[in-house]
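Action item from last meeting closed. Structure (145 res):
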Protein backbone atom coordinates (compact mmCIF):
# COMPACT_ATOMS: atom_id res chain seq x y z
CA UNK A 1 0.00 0.00 0.00
CA UNK A 2 1.25 3.37 -0.96
CA UNK A 3 0.99 6.22 1.50
CA UNK A 4 0.64 9.75 0.33
CA UNK A 5 3.38 12.02 1.32
CA UNK A 6 2.19 14.75 3.66
CA UNK A 7 2.69 18.28 2.53
CA UNK A 8 4.37 20.27 5.27
CA UNK A 9 3.28 23.85 5.60
CA UNK A 10 5.79 26.38 6.89
CA UNK A 11 4.96 28.73 9.73
CA UNK A 12 3.32 32.02 8.68
CA UNK A 13 2.32 35.17 10.41
CA UNK A 14 -1.33 36.06 9.83
CA UNK A 15 -1.37 39.48 8.15
CA UNK A 16 -5.04 39.74 7.28
CA UNK A 17 -5.83 42.08 10.17
CA UNK A 18 -2.69 44.27 9.89
CA UNK A 19 -4.51 46.84 7.77
CA UNK A 20 -7.28 47.06 10.36
CA UNK A 21 -4.78 47.64 13.15
CA UNK A 22 -2.95 50.32 11.16
CA UNK A 23 -6.25 52.06 10.38
CA UNK A 24 -7.26 52.04 14.05
CA UNK A 25 -3.89 53.50 15.06
CA UNK A 26 -4.24 56.28 12.51
CA UNK A 27 -7.74 57.11 13.75
CA UNK A 28 -6.53 57.06 17.36
CA UNK A 29 -3.71 59.52 16.68
CA UNK A 30 -5.97 61.79 14.64
CA UNK A 31 -8.50 61.97 17.46
CA UNK A 32 -6.01 62.54 20.28
CA UNK A 33 -3.64 65.07 18.66
CA UNK A 34 -3.84 68.72 19.72
CA UNK A 35 -2.37 71.58 17.77
CA UNK A 36 -0.79 74.58 19.44
CA UNK A 37 -2.50 77.74 18.22
CA UNK A 38 0.18 80.18 19.36
CA UNK A 39 3.71 79.13 18.43
CA UNK A 40 5.41 82.40 19.36
CA UNK A 41 8.72 81.62 21.08
CA UNK A 42 9.32 83.67 24.22
CA UNK A 43 11.53 83.28 27.29
CA UNK A 44 9.06 83.31 30.17
CA UNK A 45 9.76 85.09 33.46
CA UNK A 46 10.12 82.92 36.56
CA UNK A 47 7.47 82.59 39.26
CA UNK A 48 6.92 80.51 42.37
CA UNK A 49 3.19 79.95 41.95
CA UNK A 50 1.47 78.63 38.86
CA UNK A 51 -2.13 77.71 38.01
CA UNK A 52 -3.33 75.37 35.30
CA UNK A 53 -4.97 77.22 32.45
CA UNK A 54 -8.06 75.89 30.68
CA UNK A 55 -7.80 74.40 27.19
CA UNK A 56 -10.13 76.90 25.50
CA UNK A 57 -8.29 80.22 25.86
CA UNK A 58 -7.15 83.09 23.67
CA UNK A 59 -3.46 84.06 23.53
CA UNK A 60 -1.65 87.38 23.34
CA UNK A 61 2.11 86.99 22.88
CA UNK A 62 4.74 89.71 23.14
CA UNK A 63 8.25 88.93 21.91
CA UNK A 64 11.45 90.54 23.15
CA UNK A 65 11.55 92.85 20.11
CA UNK A 66 8.03 94.14 20.89
CA UNK A 67 6.03 92.19 18.28
CA UNK A 68 2.48 91.42 19.46
CA UNK A 69 0.63 88.34 18.16
CA UNK A 70 -2.97 87.39 19.00
CA UNK A 71 -5.19 84.36 18.55
CA UNK A 72 -8.71 83.59 19.70
CA UNK A 73 -7.75 79.98 20.42
CA UNK A 74 -9.47 78.62 17.32
CA UNK A 75 -7.13 79.95 14.61
CA UNK A 76 -3.38 80.40 14.29
CA UNK A 77 -1.87 83.54 15.82
CA UNK A 78 -1.54 86.69 13.73
CA UNK A 79 0.55 89.82 14.32
CA UNK A 80 -1.09 93.11 15.29
CA UNK A 81 0.60 96.46 14.60
CA UNK A 82 0.08 98.12 18.01
CA UNK A 83 -1.63 98.00 21.39
CA UNK A 84 -4.75 99.77 20.10
CA UNK A 85 -5.47 96.77 17.91
CA UNK A 86 -5.33 94.57 21.02
CA UNK A 87 -8.37 96.48 22.36
CA UNK A 88 -10.26 95.75 19.14
CA UNK A 89 -9.23 92.07 19.21
CA UNK A 90 -10.23 91.68 22.87
CA UNK A 91 -13.58 93.48 22.41
CA UNK A 92 -14.44 91.21 19.46
CA UNK A 93 -13.38 88.18 21.48
CA UNK A 94 -15.56 89.17 24.45
CA UNK A 95 -18.51 89.72 22.10
CA UNK A 96 -18.02 86.30 20.48
CA UNK A 97 -16.91 84.29 23.55
CA UNK A 98 -17.90 86.14 26.76
CA UNK A 99 -16.43 83.53 29.15
CA UNK A 100 -13.14 82.85 27.31
CA UNK A 101 -9.99 83.63 29.29
CA UNK A 102 -6.96 85.34 27.76
CA UNK A 103 -3.39 84.19 28.36
CA UNK A 104 -0.78 86.93 28.16
CA UNK A 105 2.56 85.39 27.19
CA UNK A 106 5.33 88.01 27.36
CA UNK A 107 9.07 87.51 27.00
CA UNK A 108 11.07 88.11 30.18
CA UNK A 109 12.93 90.97 28.44
CA UNK A 110 9.75 92.90 27.59
CA UNK A 111 9.49 96.12 29.67
CA UNK A 112 6.67 96.06 32.17
CA UNK A 113 5.14 99.25 30.72
CA UNK A 114 4.39 97.31 27.51
CA UNK A 115 2.71 94.53 29.47
CA UNK A 116 0.80 97.13 31.51
CA UNK A 117 -0.53 98.78 28.33
CA UNK A 118 -1.82 95.41 27.12
CA UNK A 119 -3.41 94.70 30.51
CA UNK A 120 -5.12 98.12 30.39
CA UNK A 121 -6.38 97.30 26.88
CA UNK A 122 -7.84 94.03 28.14
CA UNK A 123 -9.55 95.82 31.04
CA UNK A 124 -10.94 98.38 28.61
CA UNK A 125 -12.39 95.55 26.50
CA UNK A 126 -13.98 94.09 29.68
CA UNK A 127 -12.07 90.80 29.66
CA UNK A 128 -13.03 88.92 32.83
CA UNK A 129 -10.18 86.43 33.25
CA UNK A 130 -6.53 87.05 32.35
CA UNK A 131 -3.66 84.61 32.92
CA UNK A 132 -0.02 85.73 32.87
CA UNK A 133 2.11 82.85 31.59
CA UNK A 134 5.40 82.24 33.41
CA UNK A 135 8.05 79.61 33.95
CA UNK A 136 7.59 77.80 37.24
CA UNK A 137 10.44 77.06 39.62
CA UNK A 138 10.57 73.52 40.84
CA UNK A 139 12.13 71.91 43.90
CA UNK A 140 15.00 70.67 41.69
CA UNK A 141 15.72 74.25 40.57
CA UNK A 142 15.93 75.45 44.17
CA UNK A 143 18.21 72.57 45.28
CA UNK A 144 20.57 73.06 42.34
CA UNK A 145 21.33 76.67 43.07
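Sequence:
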Amino acid sequence: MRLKRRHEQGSVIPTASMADIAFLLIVFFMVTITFEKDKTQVVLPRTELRFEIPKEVAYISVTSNGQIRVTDGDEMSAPVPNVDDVVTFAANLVAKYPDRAIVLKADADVPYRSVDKILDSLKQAKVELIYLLSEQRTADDEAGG
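Note appended to the action item: The CA atoms of residues 18 and 126 lie 55 Å apart.
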